[in-house]
Amino acid sequence: MGLESYQIEKVESVTMADIVEKRLLDYFKKNAFKPGDAIPKELELAEALQVSRNVVREALSRLKMLGMIESKKKRGMVLSEPDIFGGFERVLDPLILEQQTLQDLFELRMVLEMGLADLIFRRKTDDDVAELERIVQKSINQNKASFKVKHEIAFHGKLYAMTGNTTIMRFQNLLLPIFEYVVSEEEKLYGIPPISDVGHGDLVEIIKNGTPQEFKEAMRIHLSPHFDRLS
Amino acid sequence: MGLESYQIEKVESVTMADIVEKRLLDYFKKNAFKPGDAIPKELELAEALQVSRNVVREALSRLKMLGMIESKKKRGMVLSEPDIFGGFERVLDPLILEQQTLQDLFELRMVLEMGLADLIFRRKTDDDVAELERIVQKSINQNKASFKVKHEIAFHGKLYAMTGNTTIMRFQNLLLPIFEYVVSEEEKLYGIPPISDVGHGDLVEIIKNGTPQEFKEAMRIHLSPHFDRLS
DNA sequence: TTAATACTTATGTAGAACATATAAACAAAT
DNA sequence: ATTTGTTTATATGTTCTACATAAGTATTAA
């Protein structure tokens, strides 16, 4: 009988820095700290938490990485609006993420893309449509692989931009390298996917004169070469 | 003329820990480190980078927070599969995020919800549908607000679960408190939104016997009370 | 009043010391 | 011979002290 049948759970050592980090987060939430609020000095925290200044600094360093805290000499530290995807960005490396996670993120981006329709139609402007047409126009008679990738990014990036939602846009920008990685891995395994029946030109036409419903269906077909490869 | 017209950018002091953190990340990527690989000892890193062990530890502490590094006494440190949303989770507090970011995240969750259709239809099982029906059944004749919220979470949570995508599921779970916060804030401003023409029962019926296209449209209508409030 | 100066303070960095867990090697016991 | 106990070396965890550095504050000089 293997050890795993005993369901022994691995003891993971919790360090002081872990505890202090959590205490600080709880402290901020409990006291409804807002960006701009000053927080206690390192030595005061160390004294209050009964740990060395070093441990406090390790915990603070973590929060600084997330943009949650800013510090200046003499002036002390203030809470600040964190970079919501800061931690996400650092961790998003195809080489260190599990295959399943990469696959999940690949799907996540496709789900996003399918769900954009209503936001796009709600907020599109004539200028947006004109730029989309320009992007599509530029891609005609271009066959180099490197250009195609750039064009893909420009076109779909513009779609995200049209939502007017900078958070979604940032999110998709972060997911992009993952998407490309998964696509290239798939191509190694299964070859170049068939070209979709619906191209960028068709999508633009629908944005111009069609309905969200038509767009959703068109986008599904546009993505279907990828979609059909999902398990 | 105000200072802002000079486009002076705020000098933000870059600390050694910031630099070392970046160097470490670059080092891992450049050398194609994979989870399980051992990384140099603290003292070696300090020596190589010509900084104190203290600074190295602050940088390492950050990566440990993201789950990117695990350390054990004597055994040293190994790279590990990071928690992809770990940093995100810590930062997701309605009180410290800007109103616009909250709004963006609110929309992001709606976009996700609209995009789920194809994954759900691709992977649904009879058991899934049965459970959805059970959830809907339980909600009949329940009118307490607290129950309604729980029911909402259970129903939509099940929809996410049916995608079989644990990353998407985790993501939506993290977004949930934000969603609830924004909804409650909106209710304070504009009152309770009108009840949608499409309820959970209708959605289940479509999942059972309908098409992804019908589901998308139904979900749009289901969410329209929220959607119509978007600027 | 203004400007130059010194003082104070909180963060940033360095280095040493010790605590603690544990891998590895070795010795003892069954 | 395999297991069990003991020793030892070592890498991380924690604390302490000291000093550097930037930036408010108070003081002084013009």
From TrEMBL, chains A, B:
The keyword Disulfide bond does not apply. SUPFAM superfamilies: GntR ligand-binding domain-like, Winged helix' DNA-binding domain. Pfam families: FCD (PF07729), GntR (PF00392). Signal peptide: none annotated. InterPro entries: GntR_C (IPR011711), TF_FadR/GntR_C (IPR008920), Tscrpt_reg_HTH_GntR (IPR000524), WH-like_DNA-bd_sf (IPR036388), WH_DNA-bd_sf (IPR036390). SMART domains: FCD (SM00895), HTH_GNTR (SM00345). It comes from Sphingobacterium gobiense. Residues 14-82 form the HTH gntR-type domain. GO terms for molecular function: DNA binding; DNA-binding transcription factor activity. PROSITE patterns: HTH_GNTR. This is FadR family transcriptional regulator. Keywords: DNA-binding, Transcription, Transcription regulation.
